[in-house]
Amino acid sequence: MLLRFSLLALLLLGIFAFLFLRRVMGAPSADNDRLDEVRRRVARPLNEELKRSHLKAGAPVFIRIFKEEGELELWMRDEMGGRYTLFKKWPIAADGGAGLGPKLKTGDLKAPEGFYHVAARQLNPSSKFHLAFNLGFPNAYDQAHGWTGSALMVHGSNVSIGCYAMTDPVIEVIYLLVDAALRGKRQDEVSVHCFPFRMTEARLARAETAGQEWAGFWRNLKQGYDLFEQTKVPPLVGQKDGTYVFRRRDP
Q1: Model-level pTM?
Q2: Is the N-terminal amide bond of 28 cis, ω within 30° of 0?
Q3: Annotated catalytic sites, by residue?
């Protein structure tokens, strides 16, 4: 009986150790050689750049995307104040070219607009688009409206049919920082906020004056945009009765 108990304890310990290592090191991939090569080439200069900005790989990360301006911003949490600071922004190489407005259905070539979350399971170092992470479309809001689509990503390779495509050197930096944040056990999910444009009152008023179909949807998105602008901390996001709802988070 004692031997049986000991073997069971060892088995449970082994399972726990495996799950712990999987969380810390990241899920195994059939193409980890690619990611290892990227780390060897990019990690040192990236860490030096982070140090100059008083940041560190492994700190929580937040991403904002702006379609009209064609820009992706990567923010990182400041360890001193707890707020997020802009590390860098890059041009988006392609977003499918279908214009402003949310993604409604599979095949419409639209890139998503809204509030998304990326967990470790959504990272794909084996992507045919170099490196990629899935945005998690459709989220609960999208599903409440019956919007459909799958495999909507931020990835490399400069080409897109509804994803947000970056150049390979840029996605390498973004991917490594997202991966480090998720493996650091201080962040379970990376928030990615996708906007049609920079949500200034003047730009939104132009859309409303022009009778834009999605002006009401964008007004709802602006609530989340404004909360981050006020606090420099990504808000908690949910949906209720087909509307995004937000809760302020302070540092």
Answers
A1: 0.86
A2: no
A3: 155, 163
